[in-house]
Design brief:
434 Repressor (Amino-terminal Domain), Rossmann fold, 6-stranded parallel sheet, 4-stranded parallel sheet, 15% strand, LacI family transcriptional regulator, HTH_LacI, DNA-binding transcription factor activity
Length: 336
């Protein structure tokens, strides 16, 4: 039989003090006299006692857990976002509970599930669900929205890449290379719509003709392939901008299907600068949307909101927008 782990009561008995006094020592309270503190510390060392973090958190009415809601595990953008969140929240003593709402039973409210876990804060990598928007402030922990979203709530902080600026960078890059008929494979959602509109407007302003699909669904490899096959049916298209790197891989597949060489016959640009884009086999020109930094700043904001002493006196919410940059690799070149 495994040896029973020592409890706080065992420490109190060994030290000859009350359980409450042991708790004060564990909390680092200055109200404990030096002799009593030494007795408790010696008892802890002799017994090999390890305090329960869960019990301490519950006693303080905190779980040290942050809920993260996303809507597509296959979107590599979330990988860097979660890495950034962990970089900011981990050292502050918080752990992440990540839920993809697309995998949750439709009868289950993911927001209610998170709140029932008593999370100390929420990060939304998706549009805020209606069940969250309908809740009063008193029923909500601090919330930070990560990424460009179609739905906004003035109660929540937000951190995002400047998607419009990033799409304009792509348009300028392609036009400067000499492309005059450019295709675009679109996606639904807040960021997808912002990128679509900004790219089309900038490319048109610079004198290029834009051919795009009417696709507004998930930003998948299959969607990129289907959209590119449609766009390549138009005459004169020499470059395609995809809504993200995953869709751009689908575009590369469509180019291969049609016997087009990249970048000799067709230039391809993605967005997000994921590990997929940087893979040596692909070498995709893309836009670095600072997803890791978005995670770091979202996590940092949340740490401040979850610490009552760090709340700004004004209580005003923040809306941070990070500047993107183009990452030029092997998939773009001047048209032949």
């Amino acid at each position: 039989m495994a040896e029973k782990r020592p409890t706080i009561y065992d420490v109190a008995t060994r030290a000859g003090v009350s359980k409450s006094l042991v708790s004060l020592v564990l909390q680092g309270s200055p109200r404990v006299a030096a002799p009593s503190r030494r007795a408790v510390e010696e008892a802890i060392a002799e017994l090999g006692y390890r305090p329960s973090r869960a019990a301490a958190n519950l006693a303080a009415n905190r779980t040290r857990t942050v809920g993260v809601l996303i809507d597509d595990y296959t979107n590599l953008w979330f990988v860097d976002l979660v890495r950034g969140l962990h970089a900011a929240l981990g050292p502050a003593g918080y752990r992440l509970a990540v839920v993809d709402v697309a995998t949750v039973d439709q009868a289950e409210d993911p927001v209610e599930s998170m709140l029932s876990m008593r999370v100390d804060g929420l990060v939304l990598g998706m549009d805020p669900p209606g069940s969250l928007l309908a809740r009063g402030d008193a029923a909500l922990p601090p919330v930070v929205v990560a990424g460009t979203r179609a739905v906004r709530d003035a109660r929540f902080d937000a951190v995002a890449n400047d998607d419009a600026a990033g799409a304009r960078l792509v348009a300028r890059h392609l036009v400067e290379l000499g492309h005059r008929t450019v295709g675009q494979v679109c996606a639904g959602g807040g960021a997808g719509e912002v990128r679509r509109t900004a790219f089309a407007a900038e490319a048109t302003r610079l004198g290029a003709t834009v051919v795009e699909t009417a696709w507004r669904g998930a930003a998948s490899d299959e969607a990129g392939f289907a959209g590119a096959m449609e766009v390549l049916g138009a005459a004169g298209v020499t470059a395609i901008f995809a809504a993200n790197d995953v869709m751009a891989v689908g575009v590369l597949g469509a180019a291969q299907e049609r016997g087009l060489r990249v970048p000799d016959d067709l230039s391809v640009v993605g967005y997000d600068d994921t590990s997929l884009a940087a893979a040596r086999l692909i070498g995709l020109t893309t836009v670095d949307d600072r997803s890791f930094d978005v995670g770091v700043q979202a996590g940092t904001l949340l740490v401040g909101r979850m610490d009552p002493d760090a709340e700004p006196a004004s209580g005003g919410r923040e809306n941070r927008v990070l500047a993107p940059r183009t990452v030029i690799r092997r998939t773009t070149a001047p048209p032949r």
